[in-house]
Amino acid sequence: MSRRRPRSGQSRPQEGSRRQEQQEDSGLIWGLNSVIEALRREPGGVHEVLVQRGKAGPRIQEIVDRARQARVRLRFVEAARMGMPGRCRHQGVVARLTMVRLYPLDELLARPASDPQRPPRLLILDSLQDPRNLGSILRSAVAAGFGDVIMTRERSVPVTGTVVRTSAGAVAHLRLCQVVNLADTLKLLKEHGFWIFGAVADPDALSIYEADFSEPACLVIGSEGRGIRPLVRQQCDHLVTIPMRSGFDSLNASVAAAIIMFEMVRP
To answer: pTM for the complete prediction?
Structure first.
């Protein structure tokens, strides 16, 4: 029995769902009025602003100034890199929104611990790119009792619809923060009394079952392919690893993060 090939212009079901997911995840708004209003009312909800090269004027400048003041990622790109259909009248400006509120670092550090009976725990995510991995890690963080998560603003996937869905709503129970310079942020956390533990796939690193997590601690999880970046790694007080049998080291970032987080909160 032969399968019918899809007609020209007809998408396979999985292709259609992938397109729909991309549209849902884009979180894009465009046009001068829309972007100015978003930056004016809720700048913490704006992940990124794209400005078309060559566009100028007082309202474009207002958008640039507001984005910089709010420390929103700002990029100047060619028209073809705006991520919009050619016929869309975006007026030279597009903004990508985040699905959740992002907390400033100083506000996050000023908030009291959710459980004063236990030392505080922070999860640090260095340049994660996969939205499903990110969603899974955030879901595990809530389950393990972590309340605060710091992510890099550059080279990281935004908190999209896929992240929210994969987290099973966990993002609503977390305080998320994005920072520009993660190495400097780790220095600041040390000044606040935190010990920094970096997760690595290195058999010579300290086993998570031998590490002392009894003090205020931050766990750094690196990207799926490259792990923790060198400058961030230098700021870690200890590098920890999950002991593997027979040299097996293919745990992905979300699985490894879950194992270590639950070990860190084990009585």
So the answer is: 0.73
